[in-house]
Amino acid sequence: MPEDCDFTIYNIPFGVYRALDGIPRCCTAIGRYVVDLSVLADNSYFNDIAGLANDIFKKDSLNDFIGLGKECTGAVRDRVIELLTADNSELQSRDDVCSRALIPMPSATMLMPIDVGDYTDFYSSKEHASNIGSLLRDPNNPLLPNWRHLPVAYHGRASSIVVSGAPVVRPVGQFKKAAADPTPVFAPTERLDYELELAFVIGKNSRLGERIPVDEAEPYIFGYLLFNDWSARDIQSWEYAPLGPFLSKNFMSSVSPWIVTTEALAPFKVPGPAPDVQLLPYLQSDSSQNYDIELQVLLAIDGGAPQLLSTTNFRHMYWNALQQLAHHTVTGCNVKIGDLMASGTISGPGENAQGCLMELTQNGKVPLKLNDGESRVFLEDGDTVIMKAAAHNNGVRVGFGDVVGRIVAHK
Fold it and tell me: Is 8 within the bounds of a domain?
C-alpha cells in the first residue's frame, strides 16, 4: 500500500457509493478499493453483531447505520479490520465474494454519505479570527469581545451541501464594488473564496430542552469529514450586518465522501491551546481534545498541475468539538443523527498556514503568485480547489480523501 494512502487498515471510514446497477450502498475503503458492506453482510460476515440487520447497508445514506450506536458501528469497523488484515484468509480466500465486495475506486461513484438535517458553522480558529479581524477592524485588537468566551457560530444551509466533485457555479448577488459606492450592483461575485474546514457528524439524538455537558459530548460525535465552505466575500461584506452570513454562504459547501470515525482518530488526540480567559464552567474541557491532523489546500488552473497554497493543522483550533457541541445545546437546542457541525476556517501560526484566500491575499490587496506567471486574489472560473487532510505518526496514517471543486461560470 502506498505510504500516502489515506485508507489504511487503521482507518476504515464509512461512505455511500453507487454500484454498477445504479443502486446506492454503504461502504468502507481500503487502499484503492471501495468495500461494499452489503456484500459482506449478505455473506454472513456480520452475523455475530447484535442488532445489525442485513439490509442496513442497502441504503442511500449512513444515517440508519449511525443510529445503531457506537457499540454496533464500532463492532462493524472492528470486524472489517479483522477481515482485511493481511494474514486473515476468512474473506480473502473467497474470490467470489471479493470480486463483488472490492470495487476499484475509479469504478465507484461516491455519494453524499449522510442525509444532513441541520448544519452549523463555527468560527473556532484563533489565527483565522485574528487575521480576519486585523483585515477588517483593528490589527491591535482583532477579536471581538465575545470570541474568547464562547464558540461563535451561525446556522447554515443543509440543502446545498454536496459531495466532492460537484461543480461550483459562481453565485450571483448584491454587493458593492467599492465601500464608497452609494449603491450596490447585482452581478456574479468577484471575490469567490474557499474555506478549509473539518466537520463532525452527530451520531446520537438529543431531546429538545436537553443540554449536552462538555464531558458527555464525545459519544454524540460519530466522526469527521473534510469540509469546504465556499464563500462570496463581496456579497458577505455587504449583507453580514446585522445578522451575519446569508447568501454569501448558502450557495454551496463541499464535503469529502468519507466519514472518519472518532475511533480511527483517537490515537491522534493532542492538547489544544490554553484558553486566554477563565471559561464559564459549562465550557471547561479536558485540554487533550484536539487532533493532530495536517491539512492542505491546492489549486489547479484550467486542469493544470495542482499547486500547494497552504498547509495547516487542526491541533491549533482554539475551541474543540466538545466545547462547540456543549455551547450549541446549552439553551436546550436538540441535535439529530446526521447533523453537521463545521469547525470554521482552519488557519495556523506561521507562513502559508492560512485556510482561505482572503487571508492569503490580505483581502485581495496582495496577489498570490503562482507558477507560470499566474496570480490570484480570489478564485476565477476554471480554477479547481483541492483539499486534503490526514493524521499520521509512527507509520500509522489515517486520511480523509480529497474534497475537490471546480469553479464554473454563473448560469
Answer: no
